[in-house]
Amino acid sequence: MGSGAVMLGFVFSFFLAPLSAEFGWSRSAISMALFLIPASALVMPVVGALIDKHGGFRVVVPSILMLSAGYVLVTFVSGAIWTFYAALALTLVLGIASGPIAYSRAVAGAFSKARGMALALALSGSSISAILLPPAVEWLISNEGWRAGFLFLAAVATIFGLPAAWIGLRGRSVEQPSETKSAPISIVQHLRSRHLPLLMGAVFFTGLPVFGLVSQLRALLDDRGFSTGEAVFTVSLVGGAVLVGRIATGLLIDRIWAPGVAAAIVLLAMIGAVLLTQSDAVFWLTATGVFLIAMAQGAELDLIAFLTARYFGMEAFGRLYSFVYLAFAISLPVGATLFAASFDIVGSYSLALYMSAAGFALAAALFLALGQYPVAQKAET
User: Taking a C-beta distance cutoff of 8 angstroms, is the pair 206, 363 a contact?
Assistant: First the structure.
């Protein structure tokens, strides 16, 4: 999963300066390209339905190949920014199934009592990508240009994505066990329930500040005067924090009420945002704040899959997961654009960081409002 479309989010900030230097585009204009992620995620319900019907392998493999081809296409953009938008749009739409949905469905359907940890381990591939990709992409862009960065992403998607799909998805049963001991609830009833908008809102207001910071992180570190080594270390630190947040979340939600765990993690992220408002040129405070916020990023995908299964069951997991994932996807470009606009307006990211603290507090409240699990848990698999 770490070699899917999610890769771009980990390294997008490295492309801001070289694209701006070559084409004269502003940071906020380049960051607007991230709105293509939720736009492409609009097809997620269709992808979820196809995965529910045909299984993940038949859907994911073509998507991986098209994602790789799309990254190559991006290297041919011209000075008109619409060509950059168009190439990325095609890449993200065709590569959308390479993300976590099929893998999360397979794991959630195979595990019950230990589901949280199983999801954490399965999703840890993206954490490893977040650790390893930034220094590699930074080196390539510095030495060979931004186009080499996109070609590298294309190679990673193919070389690692195809074996992952073969091992993790091939031969998996399309049918999934039911989470309920009573008659299944229709997807329409789930769509009308209070749990879906609450979960979507909690995921959105968690992702908004997380991805706002991550998308502008390299620029924020440069603006604070940190060295290239410190900047690359901090961006790579995001991957470590994502991994810690993911494993810790998986371990805890198997034992403790998951919305309470989610609320605690986003409140730690709120503390991280406050630290960043007070740490202009203090490297260790900046790194600590980034680490606390990135932990929430690590927890989020685990929570999306776990809470979707616990609150809605497995009968229509792919489709319902896709709605929650859409909220997650929308948060990325909105957060990135708000952070970039904050910089363009006030000349720093301080306003965006204060807004981030408020967003995390709201997300914690929405997680807690989910209430007790409405479906009975099946016996351990």
Answer: yes
At 128, list the tokens. Answer: 């490893």
Query: What is the three-class DSSP state of 194?
Result: coil
**What pTM does this model have?**
0.75
Q: If you count them, how many residues does the chain have?
A: 381
pLDDT digits (tens, 9 = 90+) for 294-311: 999 889 888 998 999 888
Name the nearest CA neighbour of 321 among 35, 50, 96, 104. Answer: 104
| Token representation of residue 113 | 């009592």
In contact, 11 and 135? CB cutoff 8 Å: no
Q: Can you spell out the DSSP letters for 260-305?
A: HHHHHHHHHHHHHHHHHHT-TT-HHHHHHHHHHHHHHHHHHHHHHH
Alpha-carbon distance of 286 to 281, in angstroms, equals 8
- Nearest Cα residue to 31 out of 368, 341, 357, 369: 341
The 10s digit of each residue's pLDDT in 182-238 is: 445 556 666 677 899 999 999 999 999 998 888 788 888 888 888 878 887 887 788
